[in-house]
Amino acid sequence: MRARHAELDSREYHCVDGSVESDYHPYLPDALELPSPESLRTTPTTSTTPKLREKQLVAVVHNDLWLNTLDTVNAFDTANASTATVKRREAKRFISASQTGAGEFLRVASDDAIRGSTITSSTLLTAIQYRCGAFLTALAPVLDEMTRRGVHVGQSDRLGGS
């Protein structure tokens, strides 16, 4: 897993603000050292101190699942590169949805007493569909009208990827 993180970290790109970033991956503490499987199979001692904390194991499992999912969406994007209207769409969407706080808008409770805190159904539906990579049904009437007027509307527009 560390090798896969190092590979992502080696891919640098330069941002408009002059900073240099690497490809995104979930955080895994540098100090995290998992014991060898052999040491976990040894005869139990009378110590009540656990050999591993659950948080450490969950971080490893989460990172592994995330990296495997990234491989899957990258393979999909590569297989469909010749017909894609948005380059690496699925990988970009997956990484975007993986960012810290990316789903926090779903946890906000609306309060009619606070102006602007209530999200309209069509806006919320569009945000959720975009997050899931589905067709944006709330935008369909607008996009259909644009098509009727002769404006080119592609699949990426209907998927929110343009």
Portion of residues in beta strands equals: under 5%
Mean pLDDT across the residues is 79
Number of strands: 2
Please report the distance between the alpha carbons of the first and last residues: 33 Å
- Strand order in the sheet with the most strands: 1-2
Spans where pLDDT lies below 50 across 5 or more residues: none
Keywords:
single chain; 162 residues; mainly alpha; two-stranded antiparallel ribbon; 7 helices; 46% helix; extended
Structural overview:
The chain is mostly helical. The chain has a domain at 103-162. Helices cover 46% and strands 4% of the residues. The chain has helices at residues 2-10, 37-40, 54-79, 89-98, 121-132, 140-148, 155-158; strands spanning 12-14, 20-22. A two-stranded antiparallel ribbon has the order 1-2. Helix 3 runs antiparallel to helix 4. The longest helix is centred in the middle third of the chain and has 26 residues, at 54-79. The protein starts with a helix and ends with a helix.
Summarize the structure.
With 162 residues, the protein is mostly helical.
SSE map:
Layout: H1 2-10, E1 12-14, E2 20-22, H2 37-40, H3 54-79, H4 89-98, H5 121-132, H6 140-148, H7 155-158
Antiparallel strand pairs: 1-2
